[in-house]
Structure formats: C-alpha cells, structure tokens
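Follow-up to my post from last week.
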Amino acid sequence: MQDLAYLFHGFAVVLTPFNFGLMLLGIVLGVIIGVLPGLGAANGIAILLPLTFTMPPTSAIIMLSCIYWGALFGGAIASILFNIPGEPWSVATTFDGYPLAQKGRAGEALTTSFTSSFVGAFFAVVMITFLAPIIARFALRFGPAEYFSVYLLTFCSFVGMGKGSPAKILASMMIGFALSTVGIDIVTGQLRMTFGLTSLLKGFDFLIAVIGLFGIGEILLSMEEGLKFSGATARINPKVVWETWKKLPRYSFTFMRSVIIGIWMGVTPGGATPASFMSYGAAKKFSKEGDKFGTGVIEGLVAPETAAHAAGTSALLPMITLGIPGSPTAAVLLGGLLIWGLQPGPLLFQEKPDFVWGLIASMYLGNVVGLAVVLSLVPAFAAILRIPFAIIAPVIVVICAIGAYTVNNSMHDIWFMLGFGVVGYVFKKLNYPMAPLVLALVLGNAAESSFRQAMLSSQGSLGILFSNGLVGGITALALVMLFWPLISTGLRTMRPARANKLAEQQPVD
Amino acid sequence: MEAIVAALLFAFGATFVYQSVELGFRWASDGPQSGFFPFYVALIICGSSLTVFVNALRGKAGRRDESFVERGQLWKVMQVLIPAAIFVLGVQLIGIYVSSAIYIALFMRFLGKYSWVKSVLIAAIICVTLFFMFEIWFQVPLYKGTWDLTSWTGY
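User reply:
Got it. Predicted complex:
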C-alpha cells in the first residue's frame, strides 16, 4: 500500500502548474507529430530530447511521455480521415476507420478509436502500477549473468515474434550492436572500429540513428509515393460522442481481449504494430460480423486501437523496471533517462520514487487529458494534414537536422543522420526491421559489459547462463524464441496452418 | 537490389571481423579483449547477410519483374535526397538558419510550384521562428557554419 501512497504523491507532482502545462504541451506536440507522416513518436521525441536537458528530469519525462501518448492518439486521425497511417501501428486502423469516414461516420469512428486507445492505455497503466514495483524488487537480485540473459531474451524475441525474414531481423540487430561498439571500449578504454577517424571517436549516438532512420527515411518513402492528401472532414460534437459511448459497452469482450494481446505484446518487445494486427485478426476471427470487417465496422476499429495503446504503454514497464525498452520509442526515453543522469533499472524505484511515480501518474493523467484534447481539437489537427507536402517535407528535414545537431552540438552528426536516412529508406524498401537496430544500438554497451562481466566471473564459460534456475530459465526461453521460426516451421509441416492474409499487409517496423 | 544490399552488409560485417581480429578477440590475462564481443557480432552479420544473399538469388528466378523502385519513384526520391545533401553541406558552410531558409524556399518553388514571393516569405517566416525558438527561448545555440552569416544578430 506504500506504493499507492507514492502514486498519490506522483499525482501531486504532476498537478503542479508547470508540469501540467508541459503535459498539455507534450500532448499537443505529440498529436501533431502523430498526424504528420514522416514524423513519428520515436524520432519526434529524439528531436525534442535535447530541449529538455535543462529541465528537471521529472518534468522532462512527463513532457516526453505525453508526446508519446499524443502521437499514439494522433496516428488514428490521419488513418481515419485520410487513409494515411501517420504511424505504423495505425495501419490496421485504416482498414475499418477509413471506410467509416467515407460513409460519413467519421465522428463516430474517431470517438471510437480515441476511446479504445484510452481504454487500452488505461488498463496497461493499471497493470504497470501494480506489477512494476514487484518486478523492480525482484530484479534487485539480478547479477550480470541475469541481465545478459534478459537482454538475450529481449533480442531473441524479436527474431521469434517479428514479422519478416529472421535473417534480416538478425542482420539489422547485429548492425546495431556493431555500431554500438564503435568508439572507446568502455571496459578497457581501447579505441575500436574508428578506422583512424576522429569523428568516430565518440561512437554513434542512437538518437542520430533514430532521427535518420525514422525521420529522413520516412520522408524519402512518402516522397516516393508522391503524397496527395484528400480526406473526409471531421466534425465531432458532444452528441456524437455520447451516442458512440452508449454503443461501446457492447464490445467489452473485444476490449478485454485486445487489452490482453496488447499488454502481452508490449511487455515482450513485440511492440504496438504487431499487437494491433494480431488483435484485429483475432477480432475478425471471433466476431459475429467477421465477414464485414474491412467495410467499416466499429469493432474492427476497437480491436487494433485498444491493443496498440495497451502495447505502447506497457512497453514502458520493462523500461522502468529493468532498463530494457520494449519499443524504439521506449528506447529513446531510456536514452533520455541516461542523459538526465538517471540509471534506469530496479534501483530507480528506491532512489527516485518521485521520478518513477511522477511518470506513472502522468500516464494516467496524460491519457485522460489526451482524450479530452483530441476529442475537442480534431478539426484543428486534421487541418495540419491540409498543409501541402512541399512545405512539410523540407521543414521536417530542417527539424531533423536541428534535432541531430543539438544532441551533441556536432556537425558530423547531421551527416551521419543523412547517412542513416538513406539506410532507413533502403531497409524499409527491403523489409529489414529497424526497431531491432535501434534497440541494439541503445543497449549494445550495457549488453556487452554485462556479458563480459558474466564471462569474467565464470572464467569464460557459457555455463554461467545456466548456473541457476532463474538465469537458466530466462536463457532457455530466449533460445526457444531465437529458434521459434524454425520450431514453428516444424509445427506447420506437421499440421498445415491456414494462410494468414493479414500478415502480408503488415508493415515491418 | 536485395542481393546488392546483402553483399554490402557482408562487406560491413567482414570489415568488423577484420578490425576485431586486429584488436584481439581472444582471452587475455585480464579477461576478454576489446575485439571479443564485436567479433561474434560481426560473424553473425556475415552469416545472416549470406542467408539473405542466397535467398535473394534463389528467389530471383520467380520474381524478376519486381524491381526495387520504379524509375519515376527513384527520380522523386533523388529530388529530395540530393537537395537534402546539399542542404547539409550548406549547414556546414553557412549555418542552419540561412541554409534552411534557402532550402525551404527552393523546395517550395521547384517541387511545390509555388510563386517566388510565397516561397521566400514562408521560408523566411519559418526560419525566423526557429531562430527565436532556439536562440532566445530555449537558449540552445545552433550551428552557424564556417562562414557565419548571422553574426550580426549577436547570438
């Protein structure tokens, strides 16, 4: 119950005028970022991160996490009104959202998706409130070997649960690790992989990689499609909202199922995008109106939105308790924590209860405020999409350049950003997933040093990864995940599975 | 294209393997040497890129017509990429603000087909706003370039 007291203290922290103002600012910025194609939550936060260096960490995390909530809400606006997924996780929202908007039921569709987002996020936050302290206490017993095995599990789950070719997931992940080794070796102080170039001394900052891969890469992709925005207009009035809310309890079973899928996919690093597709698929299979999915069914909107938000929110659970982010956006937030001088992980709960519970309280309030903001300001946000792409595109490039520069005040970083942009474009075209690369780049140093420490204490024997029940169990689970593609192929040959049409439309993020 | 990228990745991995071997990837008296971790990482890169490479060559017969990008699309992408590269060069030389203004104005004029007046005006407004935001409100100085054209502002 002490935790609840902390939580209320957290609410008090968030409700100070300064923090509350930052929260509103964060949500509005977040929705704008979510609406604009080419600016996503991960790179939006990466760009804004340097601006928070001078703020107190608690205020900074409140603002940045609210950008995240805002972006989650905002993705739905572009999907429903313009049939353009503003974010990868809102692709599944377009399936039923856009048809609804075309039928003139845009208000209903928007209300449904915002409410579903809210419900998904809310349950995920409740889960975090109760599970996080327990996991953190448990994780205090972890040594280097345990940490390495958890890292192993994180990365192996990408291979096991990711969509697309396992070889490509592995390649992208290992490139991240390789890039993270560039610079000074943290253990011995030796220079590595710098090829004698002084600009590589400091290594690659993952924020630069995020801005380049997701920002510049996206712009190049959208340009290729030659975006022309044409969409339905949105009017939401209280009556529509009320009418829709009266209908929603009918889908409570869909809500619950989507929440569970979302939380599961978020905690294990599956991420919001696969969660939304999985939930959509499940709803289609179980619903009585299954055949009508894709023509504008409310239920087809409830499922992906709830799951995406539940996943996006619960991705923060492993981040604050173990220091392992469940999604690229969580990885950027984790990078922020390190920059503010906080060591993410179980100790955070004891050393900085203000920070942790302020963050959790801001999740509750952020989602309530977010819901209110998007419901009342939809037309304004939709208007952003009417700004021609010829203005938006160069402005986003400029903003990305500024963001990349401010990370380290280094001109080289802008060049690296451009390079990462090209890599991002090519990877996206060839379906190499980018999330593993970013996560590996963030966690590379930590994973390497915990691996080396574990190896040191065991005199180089890999047996330490199975030395006790805990670490052995995690490692074994990781190996199952790693070889899951092979295992599932094996299972499939034994009993032929039905073709999954949805998987083909699913983007790799 | 698939095969080319895989080959590039393989080369990338191979360079890292080579570097790791130079650093020493075995055990020294004080534990693993610096090249230990990158060595295995790079080996996996080589392995997985090889898999992609082989898969690409094998699958090629089936879908030869499916090209990486169409010529028109590539042209459009280059229309963004090349100016962006020039923009970054501009940032290096004349600083973020001036080159952003020029970049946005030219982009609007030539890709967006706006009138000169409109393009220049909007670009100027955006850059002045950015200037105020970063230099004055957030107090984050941005890069002014080798030849500082904004020194007269005093920031």
